[in-house]
Amino acid sequence: MAAEQDPEGRAAARPLLTDLYQATMALGYWRAGRARDAAEFELFFRRCPFGGAFALAAGLRDCVRFLRAFRLRDADVQFLASVLPPDTDPAFFEHLRSLDCSEVTVRALPEGSLAFPGGLGEGGVPRLEVPGPSLVATNAARLRLIAGPEKRLLEMGLRRAQGPDGGLTASTYSYLGGFDSSSNVLAGQLRGVPVAGTLAHSFVTSFSGSEVPPDPMLAPAAGEGPGVDLAAKAQVWLEHVCAHLGLGVQEPHPGERAAFVAYALAFPRAFQGLLDSYSVWRSGLPNFLAVALALGELGYRAVGVRLDSGDLLQQAQEIRKVFRAAAAQFQVPWLESVPIAVSNNIDEEALARLAQEGSEVNVIGIGTSVVTCPQQPSLGCVYKLVAVGGQPRMKLTEDPEKQTLPGSKAAFRLLGSDGSLLMDVLQLAEEPAPQAGQELRVWPPGAQEPCTVRPAQVEPLLRLCLQQGQLCEPLPSLAESRALVQLSLSQLSPEHRRLQSPAQYQVVLSERLQALVNSLHARASP
Q: What are the GO MF terms of this UniProt record (predicted)?
């Protein structure tokens, strides 16, 4: 995945997208003769987002892509020279020009894994590449849990995202978290996210009804027989539809109907009507039915309708009744099951209503609530030094919450005999791994005494994905990571999976790690 073979990586790898103190510290380390010292950092978060009990690890692929493409260009070095002291030794800038990530090692949770307070990865994990993706993926997973497995979820928040990079990140990781598709074309091109979309209100309102298509003829779906003037055929059907609905034939907006005909001519096998540009009941619905039935006579089937305003649940139920009645009246059974899509500032509360039993909504488009994570716009990840030259380092502060866990570590997930998750264990890297069926003494957070657990299964959590700058194994595809999300969530107990007031999942320390923490505390005490 070298940068020269990966256009996305080359575009994403911008070394100066960092805080200035990284450059000032680099000069300080170099001046002290420590630029080549081996150091280990950990990336973690202290609280699960959105008041929940879980998060999803995401962004690893972006992280690896960034590291493997990392190189300071001449323009980068020249800019750093302009913001560092003017008497900085020129040799330092030659040192910067030689920097790459060929000595970086990264161990991390596989993308799509469940993550809990305590750790996402170790090594040279770029801080910018993980928190945002993890937050969006977790948010999307929550929305998927609310929607259930049957509703189709479309991410359509590109226009609401924080800039182009934010839009691409949101589209990618909402798909990983459980959405079915995105409106973002670039996410489809670069990341393989399924893309979906039809038409906006501007398309509908741009037509007045006086337009004449250059070629109004549409051939039958089977490809046999003469073409038919679709606009004329839709006009004939409009009379039948209006008589069925008790409407005057002049009530449906002619411009809307012309827009539907134009779209149907372009997409006869994927015609969808946007119903609320004018009046849903007096215009959008009869115009849709007229064009859909005209297409149906030629062997095509409309693929859906969309609502973007009003009481979406109630309207969907009433539209379904109209579809069923029209299907019986005109003897077209497929019409009664035409999918109904909805959108319009849908948040968790609105989604729960749309997903309830008896809802006739099939597809739900969500924008702002998934891409901006309004409940919690930041995951609050922390990136801290834990070892230098193999020796543990610990941040000691009066605020216990901001203290760090020292030393190079390993992490394991303990499971019960039924495969349910019991707890995660953090331990020193040199300790032997916990064994299934063997008793293990661990320290829960803030406990005065250890407790004992006997796991039926033990899973190592951190995978070696980059060693000395080299990829250790192929990274999973986005679709594979998406499947891991669903598998991971299925292993979580209902108490931990629920979104309101969940039980908190435990991340505990081994006895040796706890002893090291106590020892460093004691040394620092006056």
A: metal ion binding; nicotinate phosphoribosyltransferase activity; transferase activity
